[in-house]
Every structure is written in C-alpha cells, then in structure tokens.
Design a protein that fits this description.
- Helices cover about 35% and strands about 20% of the residues.
- By secondary structure, it is α/β, with parallel strands linked by helices.
- The chain has a single domain (about 25-250), classed as 3-Layer(aba) Sandwich (Rossmann fold).
- Strands 6-7-8-3-9-10 form a 6-stranded mixed beta sheet. It has a 4-stranded antiparallel beta sheet with strand order 2-1-4-5, sandwiched between helices.
- Helix 7 (about 200-215) links the parallel strand 7 and strand 8.
- Helix 4 (about 125-135) packs across helix 5 (about 140-155) and helix 4 (about 125-135) packs parallel to helix 6.
- The longest helix has 19 residues, at about 5-20.
Length: about 260
C-alpha cells in the first residue's frame, strides 16, 4: 500500500469512528457535558449532563437566569474552556482529540465568538481590530486590512474603518466585534448576550444585523440571551436552568423536531 493510500485508509477509518461516536451528523454537538467548579463539599455544578445538537443553518437561542451557566456552555462549545466530563463534537469529530495548536486553529477558523462586552483593543483602529484573527494566522497586513474593510462595510461601518475603537459608540463597537467574529468566515457563530450592554435602539439594530448575517452567510448560530425579542427570532429556544438544558415551552412556535438528547 502506498503512503497516500495508507493515509486515505486511515482517514476513512477515523471518519467511520467519528460517525459511530456521533451518529446525528450535527455540525456542533455536546454529549453529557458537565462542568463542576471546586471540589468536595464546596463544589458547584454549573452544567449537569448537557446534551445539545446544533444543526447546520439553525439559529438557536439559549435563555435562562443570570448565573445559570449560559456563558460557560458557550465557552465549552468554542473550546475556550474544558468540561469536567462529556464531549463536544464539531462535524462529528471530538474537539478534545485536537492538539493545543489545532484547537487554536479550530477557534480561529471555524468558530466566531461575539461577547457581551466587545473586548476591542481601544488604541487600534476598527479595521485593525477586525483584522486581528487574520493577522494571528500570519496573513499579510495589507491583505488583512482589506478584508477587514469589506466586513466593516457589511456591518455599516465602512466610514469608521480608520477610527480608533475607543472613539466609537457602544453600538458601533459591538458591530465591529461582529465583523471581527465573522472575518474568518466561520461555520458557527456563538454570541454571548450580544445585546446585553446596549440600549433598546442599538439592541434592535444588532438583532437585525445578526439575523441578516446569519441568513446571508448561511451561518449556524447559537445565542445566549436575556432578550426575549432576540430569542423569538430564533428557530429554537432552549432554557438552561439548574444545570439542565430543555426546550422552552414559552417560545414554542410549531412542530419543529427536537433532538432526543435535549428532551431530558
């Protein structure tokens, strides 16, 4: 067997094993995900056996009270944190199987993350902030800025490209953060309370933008939110409470099928 044939055979075996471990075919999936902080009598269980299947093209909202673990769940799905137990799969492959360097590449290329607080670098321009994910993978500076400019135009901020982030309004800063999350053309967008720090007018504008970008770029999106208007725009709404994730009956809009793992 040639080296290339051996490589292909090994790849086929790996894909078959991944399919066996994760038969649903979901683009992003969590199985029996647990996150416990501390140890012994003082330990706190934030997530207690979470099951989630995020299907390609879906926009899913996760709602729940403050402190229920919504941010923790998104961090685990993005490989920004590691679970106490359980597994996160991306395209049928266990994320934990990656080496540290490939996990970093996974986050850079396949996942876009929008935080409640934009986390922009205040002394850098809007374009430089958007370009950061590209520069981190050693893209040429001029090329990265050009792509960043295109994404700033996409979020309505082409005229603000050369302004420092600190000079922008709160709503503009969040739009820059959305452009930064999407500049790598990720498969999945994770947004943690993306309208939480905005007034009503800017919150509606960001909701409109997220929905438009989701459909235009055929994203798969999961949003943690307290905003019922944003949740209602999503295909499914799940409630995270007491460490468990279930469909939220208050937002049920029709007979959309619910993956078995999320019924318990």
């Amino acid at each position: 067997m040639t080296k290339s044939a051996a490589t292909i055979a090994a790849s086929d075996v790996k894909q078959a094993e991944n399919a066996r471990l994760n038969p649903s075919g979901a683009i992003l999936e969590a199985r029996e995900l647990r996150k416990i902080y501390g140890a012994g009598a003082g330990s706190v269980t934030v997530l207690d056996g979470i099951n989630l299947e995020l299907r390609t093209g879906e926009m899913v909202a996760v709602v729940g009270p403050s402190g229920s673990g919504k941010s923790t769940l998104l961090h685990l799905l993005a490989a920004l944190d590691t679970p106490t137990s359980g597994t996160v799969y991306f395209e049928s492959e266990a994320v934990e199987a990656h080496r540290d360097d490939s996990i970093a590449e996974f986050r850079n290329r396949r996942i876009g993350f929008v935080w409640q607080r934009h986390h922009l670098l205040p002394d850098f321009t809007a374009a430089e902030n958007v370009a950061m994910p590209l520069l981190m993978r050693d893209s040429r500076y001029a090329e990265a800025l050009s792509v960043a400019g295109q994404w700033l135009a996409e979020v309505g901020l082409a005229s603000k490209a050369q302004q420092n982030a600190a000079q922008l309004s709160g709503g503009e800063q969040q739009r820059v953060a959305i452009a930064r999350a999407l500049v790598s053309k990720p498969a999945v967008l994770l947004a943690d309370e993306p309208t939480g720090d905005l007034d009503e007018s800017n919150a509606v504008a960001v909701m409109d933008l997220l929905e438009r970008l989701h459909h235009t770029y055929r994203l798969t999106s999961i949003l943690a939110t307290h905003n019922p208007l944003l949740a209602k725009r999503c295909d499914r709404v799940l409630r995270l409470e007491h460490g468990l994730l279930r469909p939220d009956a208050a937002y049920q809009q029709g007979p959309s099928p619910v993956p078995e793992g999320e019924k318990s």
